[in-house]
Specification:
CATH class of the largest domain: Alpha Beta
Mean pLDDT: 89
Helix content: 25-40%
CATH superfamily of the largest domain: ATP-grasp fold, B domain
Order of helices and strands: EHEHEHHHEHHEEHEEEEHEHEEHH
Oligomer: single chain
Number of strands: 13
Structural class: alpha+beta
Low-confidence stretches: 215-224
Number of helices: 12
CATH architecture of the largest domain: 2-Layer Sandwich
Number of domains: 3
Strand content: 15-25%
Length: 319
Amino acid sequence: MSRVAVLKGGTSLERGVSLRSGARVEDALERLGHDVISIDVGAELITDIRDAGADVAFVVLHGRDGEDGTVQELLEILGVPYTGSGVLGCMRCADKVLTKQLLREAGLPTPDFFAFNETAFKQLGAAGALPAIEERLTFPIVVKPAGQGSALGISFAAAAGDVPAALMNAFSYDTRVLLERHVKGRELAVSILEGPGGPEVLPIVEAVPRESDFYDFEARYEIGRTKFECPAELGDEATELVGSTALAVYRLLGCYGFARVDIMLDEVSGEPLVLETNAIPGLTETSLLPQAGEAAGIAFDDLVGRVLELAFARAGASA
């Protein structure tokens, strides 16, 4: 068995979710017989990793610094194998604007959008372009920070008067903001896990909030706030289309090991529109990847074990 450093916590706004994910992973690794070292990521990370003497790092960090390639780059410098996507894949997934630009360039479907940073808004008069943006996207629109996960900082703007407050909310989370056409339809989570023959699509999860129209942070992580259907009842043709779209996104962004692609299935056109990709999906009791794994007959411990094996496989291939 291996000595595994579980990297969790950190200082991002998703710290709480990361701690919960990390605790579940640690329990699973111990049941699998591994020697587990728990590391709450902070200023002493390099020292903590060196002192741990770990064979591999299991990265369960969410948000800035943990999911955007920062920690992955440090682990590569230290020569420590790690789980999940590499530096470039993490960078691409963490930046929603970059993700959508790459999707657009590759011809993969994503809702229409515009983006600008805080400097453009405050110093270059970007506020004057808002009427044109609003006209081209049409209401309602979704306003979200470019680099946060777990639905943090996301607002709906039903009319032009709602946009300033939505922008202020998004800018409180990030210096870059995305304005996106709102798509009415079914919210789907497509988890992907590497198998012997390459990445495989797990059963699709549909999230149906019980108390609101928006699958927000609380709905994601408070038990009972959301109803989950897995596998989602889509029909064979739609299931195939959604799955193949998610797989194309996974490959385009350079993901590895596992990831989750969030998709809206447009209720009018039936087109699967890609919203974002999570390079390190949550592994909490309410997270969607474990639910998809269970539906595929993969118990949580087996899921954790497979992700760990993939880290060693990548390290061996690059040696």
